[in-house]
Structures are given as structure tokens and as C-alpha cells.
């Protein structure tokens, strides 16, 4: 009996996951999706979730609500069996203008605590909390494709470097702006950008001078993998890419993301060890047999019905 209740609970988790209430089916119109005030979460295609930064009138500046909502949103997406890939976009004129300079100033500039130690500890807690806002993108087992148009400033670069695939429009530009507002970028850029861009010298130049990098250089340096003429074309490209990923076995796709990230941060020998342990269970999936058979029969992965994960 306990087993039956338990398996029904697992089978139906898509019905009780509160996050699913936030998904607006097949629509990219409208404002933020409750319970979010800064994000619009939609399902533009089967198994694809689109998360749009949604404060266009403020150029998607990241206010206090945003820093928490991203964590809630991606924690739900990570557990949502109806989602196999995520596309992150920005509403309005630009992708994002970075941290909300009006809303966040108090938090950072006037930290509180009974003495220096406690004030420092509170500030540390705050920085760790903000780091988690983008680390959730990396921790999410579903691949995250980010599509950037116009400006991507400051914390925007922290965000995109935690994504798996970066696309942009011809008019996009990127700016590691933190030195201009008197701080060392502390929520991911300094840690992840050097892993994304091959040239350490270029990373240092961008972070130390805050000069803008335009789309052509973003492509040639490896920050983005594709540049599109405009947002509409980019969105078609992003959706095509997302649907390609979503059509593959979720066991294979999520295992690939997790092992790629593990290998980035470990030696080849450690990565191989991790991979062997990973696949000692994952190779037992039905997906291998189904995929291999489809491949032999020259069928597209889109024709293979994989179980939800
Ligand atoms: C522990 C935390 C760690 C995190 C650190 C993160 C640091 C950073 O992100 S540093 C980067 C901070 N951002 C900026 O310096 C960018 C400021 N904005 C701009 O340069 C321009 O807005 C932009 C080029 C992005 C777009 O220009 P555009 O002409 O299209 O728009 P504007 O007329 O300038 O702005 C329209 C309204 O949006 C408000 N706004 C824009 N950016 C921000 C922002 N970052 N914070 C708050 N509000 C912003 C702007 O005030 C306008 O509002 P309103 O006057 O009410 O219409």
C-alpha cells in the first residue's frame, strides 16, 4: 500500500508541483506569471520552458524580488518532469541592465549588524544568496539556453555565464560593469567567464576596464555560439535548438550537462571516474535501447517516446 501511494505520488508530481501553476501554456505575451513579479514563465513548445526577465520599463534591472524569484523558479524547473530544456530571454528593449541600482543600494551599501563581525557576516550571507540566484542555472539538470538582445550589463554577464548555450542578436553588447560601480563582480562572472572565454587576457581586460564587447567579438571569443540578425530570428533559432535538445533522451541530456560541468571543474582522470560511476546506473535506462533502435531504423529522436524524468 505504502509503495502504491509512494509511486502515485512520484508519477503525479507534475500535478502537485506548485511551480507548474506558474507556467503559461503556449504564450509569450503578457506580464510576469504569478507568483513571480519579475519573471514570465511560459511553455512555448512541448517540454520547453521559457523564462523571460520581465521588467521591460526598467530594462529588466534585477531588483530584490528578482534575486529570490530566480531561485524559486529554477528549483521548480529542476523538478518539473514536463520540462527538458529552458530558454532564458529578456522582455522589451534590452536583455538586462544588471543589478537594480535604486532597489539594491540599501542592502549593499548600508549593511546592518551589532558590530563589524556581525555586519560582515550578514554581508557575506547576502553575497552568497545572490550567488545562488545564478548558480541555480548551473545546478539545474536541464540545459539552459540564453538568448541575449541589446544590452547585457553587470549581473547580466554573471547570469549568462551560468547558462549552457549562449545566443545573441547582432545588436547585443556585453559589459562587465562592476568596477565602474566600485565593486569586484561577486556573483559568478570572475569565476565562470575565464572558463567560457579561452583568452585570460581578454577576460582581464573586460573585467578591469568594463569596456563594452559587441556581438562580433562575443562570437569570435567564444562567449556566444551564434549571432542572429534580430530578436525574432534569434527566438526561432533558440526554439529550434531547444526542441532538438528536448527531443533527445532526458537521461542522456541531463547526464551530459552534469558531466560536462563536473569535468570543467576537475581533472580528466577525476572526470572519467565520475562518468564511469554515473553511467554504471544510467546505462541501464530503456532510453539507450530505444534510441539505438531508432537510429538503426533511421528514425528521428523526435519519433521516440521517452519516459518523463
Ligand atoms: C551582491 C550583488 C552583486 C551584484 C552586482 C551587480 C552589479 C551590476 O549589475 S553593475 C551594472 C549596473 N547597471 C548599470 O550600470 C546599467 C544602467 N543602465 C543603463 O546603462 C541603461 O539603462 C541601458 C544602456 C541598459 C539602457 O538604456 P536605455 O536608454 O534603453 O534606458 P534608460 O532610459 O537608461 O532606462 C529606462 C528606465 O530603466 C531604468 N534603469 C535602467 N537601468 C537600471 C538599473 N540598472 N537599475 C535601476 N533602474 C534602471 C532607468 O532609470 C529608467 O527608468 P525611468 O527613468 O523610471 O524611466
Molecular structure report:
With 309 residues, this protein is an alpha/beta fold. The chain folds into two domains: 2-246, Alpha-Beta Complex (2-enoyl-CoA Hydratase, Chain A, domain 1), CATH 3.90.226; 250-303, Lyase 2-enoyl-coa Hydratase, Chain  A, domain 2 (Orthogonal Bundle). Helices cover 48% and strands 14% of the residues. It has a seven-stranded mixed β-sheet with strand order 1-2-3-4-5-7-10, with helices on both faces. Strands 6-8-9 form a three-stranded mixed β-sheet. Helix 3 packs across helix 5. The longest helix has 24 residues, at 116-139. The radius of gyration is 20 Å and the shape is globular. The two termini are 23 Å apart. The model is unreliable at 1-19 (pLDDT under 50). The protein binds ligand LH2PNOKW. Ligand LH2PNOKW binds at residues 58-59, 61, 93-94, 97-102, 108, 127, 130, 151, 153-155, 177-178, 181, 186-187.
Amino acid at each position: 500500500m505504502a509503495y502504491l501511494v509512494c509511486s502515485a505520488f512520484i508519477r503525479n508530481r507534475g500535478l502537485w508541483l506548485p511551480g507548474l501553476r506558474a507556467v503559461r501554456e503556449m504564450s509569450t505575451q503578457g506580464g510576469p506569471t504569478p507568483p513571480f513579479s519579475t519573471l514570465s514563465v511560459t511553455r512555448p513548445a512541448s517540454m520547453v520552458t521559457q523564462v523571460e526577465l520581465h521588467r521591460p520599463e526598467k530594462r529588466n534591472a534585477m531588483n530584490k524580488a528578482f534575486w529570490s524569484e530566480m531561485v524559486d523558479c529554477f528549483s521548480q524547473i529542476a523538478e518539473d518532469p514536463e520540462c527538458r530544456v529552458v530558454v532564458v530571454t529578456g522582455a522589451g528593449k534590452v536583455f538586462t541592465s544588471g543589478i537594480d541600482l535604486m532597489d539594491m543600494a540599501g542592502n549593499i551599501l548600508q549593511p546592518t549588524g551589532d558590530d563589524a563581525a556581525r555586519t560582515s557576516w550578514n554581508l557575506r550571507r547576502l553575497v552568497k544568496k545572490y550567488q545562488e540566484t545564478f548558480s541555480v542555472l548551473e545546478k539545474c539538470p536541464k540545459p539552459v539556453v540564453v538568448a541575449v538582445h541589446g544590452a547585457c550589463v553587470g549581473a547580466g554577464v554573471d547570469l549568462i555565464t551560468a547558462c549552457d548555450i549562449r545566443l545573441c542578436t547582432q545588436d547585443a553588447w556585453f559589459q562587465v560593469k562592476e568596477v565602474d560601480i566600485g565593486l569586484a563582480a561577486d556573483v559568478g562572472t570572475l569565476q565562470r567567464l575565464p572558463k567560457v572565454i579561452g583568452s585570460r587576457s581578454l577576460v582581464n581586460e573586460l573585467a578591469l576596464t568594463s569596456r563594452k564587447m559587441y556581438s562580433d567579438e562575443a562570437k569570435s571569443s567564444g562567449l556566444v555560439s551564434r549571432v542572429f540578425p534580430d530578436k525574432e530570428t534569434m527566438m526561432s533559432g533558440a526554439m529550434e535548438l531547444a526542441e532538438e535538445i528536448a527531443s533527445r533522451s532526458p537521461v542522456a541530456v541531463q547526464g551530459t550537462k552534469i558531466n560536462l560541468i563536473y569535468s570543467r571543474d576537475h581533472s580528466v582522470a577525476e572526470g572519467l571516474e565520475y562518468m564511469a560511476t554515473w553511467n554504471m546506473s544510467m546505462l541501464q535506462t530503456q532510453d539507450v535501447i530505444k534510441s539505438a533502435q531508432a537510429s538503426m531504423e533511421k528514425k528521428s529522436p523526435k519519433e521516440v517516446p521517452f519516459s518523463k524524468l
